[in-house]
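Propose amino acids for all 399 sites.
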């Protein structure tokens, strides 16, 4: 699909391309190469202060998998920088040595030396561990890593789409939910594997997730993409969990649908994805203070998430790429208008000119509430992935 973009000057696109290129390759990538590698014990530090110093030394394995994937992805898709491959290997060696249980699952958190701390969230840890193995197998030309990745895929994929009774809180309730997160994870994994070694199996898994998002979770009559629905897709609005919307999550999901649609020349799926983006922005954008809210309930009843009104780095990052990709495919003026608004807010509030990299957590007014650059959730993933995708897309548009 190659729709003609709307009338935006080439000079503007070139300037944006350079802004994303510089943010990624002059700031973010060097920052992580400089600060995250633990040269004494192996692997990556997961908890880094604003200036890059470790504030604790435990290592989160889903963040390790993300970082291995990101360095490998840059190596595979931008240039063969030996420092990137070495950094990817450095994290993968620690992960392979320490992160797996005897049954093949993964620990969520390890000590600095690699001793287990927690198995919590192992499914999501395996999502990023698996894409790390797949992407690095290509970068390193290593068949043993691809065999490991294949085994992880076989174990992981059947667990998605199974009913959950713990959609939001930490305890079970008498209800079964289908989780939007599972569809996103299946796309994340299948897309990477299909890029590394295309196979109809991966295409089928992409189709399964795209159809589930479109038919189960997207509710055009509201309009909203619901995080938690009944197994058949029915809304469960009598429960707080059933009313939850995460604008950034919905928008991230939408650009995944667009990438599938672009590859398959499926304009109807592009249209659905664009409607998800616009509905999420109309609902989630803070018109008083600017920025995208983290979590809302679709009826504006209180959420369980006390940080619901915070402005986080990753939803803004994902929104930039979704809007830019949607505009490139459709040329719709409202997408570019939203893009400029989100771009302005994002680059005005999150980059840290003093210490490099980006801040992650702002209050509703846009002031930092937490200045450390890495924790168990913020790492070398959302920001560099979006900067790279935007840079690639702008490079194509200005070629």
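Proposal:
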């Amino acid at each position: 699909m190659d729709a003609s973009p709307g009338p935006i000057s080439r000079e503007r696109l070139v300037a944006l391309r350079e802004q994303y290129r510089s943010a990624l390759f002059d700031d973010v990538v060097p920052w992580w190469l400089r600060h995250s590698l633990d040269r004494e014990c192996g692997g990556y530090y997961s908890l880094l202060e604003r200036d890059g110093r470790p504030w604790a030394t435990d290592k989160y394995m889903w963040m390790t998998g993300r970082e291995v994937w990101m360095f490998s992805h840059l190596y595979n898709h931008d240039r063969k920088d030996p420092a990137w491959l070495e950094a990817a290997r450095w994290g993968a060696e620690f992960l392979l040595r320490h992160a797996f249980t005897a049954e093949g699952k993964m620990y969520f958190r390890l000590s600095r030396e690699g001793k287990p701390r927690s198995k919590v969230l192992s499914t999501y840890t395996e999502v990023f561990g698996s894409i790390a193995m797949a992407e690095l197998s290509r970068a390193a030309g290593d068949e043993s890593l691809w065999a490991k990745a294949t085994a992880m895929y076989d174990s992981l994929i059947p667990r998605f789409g199974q009913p959950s009774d713990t959609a939001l809180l930490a305890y079970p309730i008498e209800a079964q939910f289908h989780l939007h997160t599972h569809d996103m994870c299946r796309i994340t994994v299948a897309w990477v594997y299909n890029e590394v070694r295309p196979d109809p199996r991966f295409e089928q898994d992409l189709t399964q997730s795209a159809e589930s998002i479109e038919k189960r979770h997207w509710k055009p009559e509201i309009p909203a993409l619901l995080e938690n629905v009944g197994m058949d897709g029915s809304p469960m609005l009598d429960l707080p969990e059933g009313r939850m919307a995460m604008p950034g999550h919905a928008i991230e999901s939408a650009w995944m649908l667009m990438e599938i649609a672009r590859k398959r020349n499926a304009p109807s799926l592009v249209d659905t994805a664009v409607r998800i983006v616009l509905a999420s922005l109309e609902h989630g954008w803070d018109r008083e203070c600017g920025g995208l809210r983290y979590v809302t309930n679709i009826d504006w009843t209180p959420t369980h998430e006390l940080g619901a009104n915070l402005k986080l780095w990753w939803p803004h990052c994902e929104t930039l790429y979704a809007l830019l990709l949607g505009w490139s495919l459709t040329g719709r003026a409202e997408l570019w208008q939203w893009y400029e608004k989100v771009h302005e807010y994002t680059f005005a509030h999150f980059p840290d000119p003093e210490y490099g990299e980006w801040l992650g957590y702002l209050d509703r007014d846009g002031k930092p509430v937490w200045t450390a650059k890495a924790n168990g959730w913020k790492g070398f993933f959302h920001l560099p992935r979006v900067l790279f995708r935007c840079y690639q897309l702008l490079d194509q548009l200005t070629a």
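The chain is about 55% helix and 5% strand. The chain has a mean pLDDT of 96.
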